What we know:
Blueprint: E1 3-9, E2 18-24, H1 33-46, E3 69-70, E4 73-74, E5 95-99, E6 108-110, E7 113-114, H2 117-126, H3 146-156, H4 163-167, H5 174-185, H6 194-207, H7 218-222, H8 230-244
Parallel strand pairs: 1-5
Antiparallel strand pairs: 1-2, 3-4, 3-5, 6-7
Helix pairs in contact: 2-5, 2-6, 3-5, 5-6, 5-8, 6-8
The structure holds FE2/S2 (inorganic) cluster.
Amino acid sequence: xxxxxxxxxxxxxxxxxxxxxxxxxxxxxxxxxxxxxxxxxxxxxxxxxxxxxxxxxxxxxxxxxxxxxxxxxxxxxxxxxxxxxxxxxxxxxxxxxxxxxxxxxxxxxxxxxxxxxxxxxxxxxxxxxxxxxxxxxxxxxxxxxxxxxxxxxxxxxxxxxxxxxxxxxxxxxxxxxxxxxxxxxxxxxxxxxxxxxxxxxxxxxxxxxxxxxxxxxxxxxxxxxxxxxxxxxxxxxxxxxxxxxxxxx
Length: 249
Ligand code: FES
């Protein structure tokens, strides 16, 4: 395959940045999208040029670091992570536009790399549980109904890639935050901090500059792990019941 890549290049957060066009040849349809970028970068390095910076780690759809906006969609044309996208999803001669996640709360570090530490701070605000130290508990000591366990595990599939934010016209992080709140609110182990968790995490989400949810559902449609927006409804219930029972009102 021969392709034309239009890639966003930006030296640092304060640089204006712009698109640079690169032709690439001999791309196998069996390459992953990131392998195709590796080939481009090998050519740039051979010519003494600065390679295109992009985030990646596991390349197995687990870590959530591969954050590319491809032809106007987070992670490209399929509902998967960029590292699990293969070149067979594109056609010979196609032009592919590659941009970083676009959100104020995700400032650009360089080229296609954005700083997603805002997500870490939301987790630090309340995405944890208190556990008693001591011996290892028996596996069946805390029975959890299967339907509840399934809902919690579905929410726990969120890999924090940020596609939900990139897909949302408001750059809202409510799908991410609600998945993290839900996985703990549903389980007995998450009950200790339940009342304060939603308040703290939502407050941090707002402080980071993410937008509000207007129920367009773009986040769910683009999420590579299929996280449901029903988690947002659960987060809202958790938040309002926490606020209404707060001693501050
Ligand atoms: S590199 Fe880890 S999910 Fe893509």
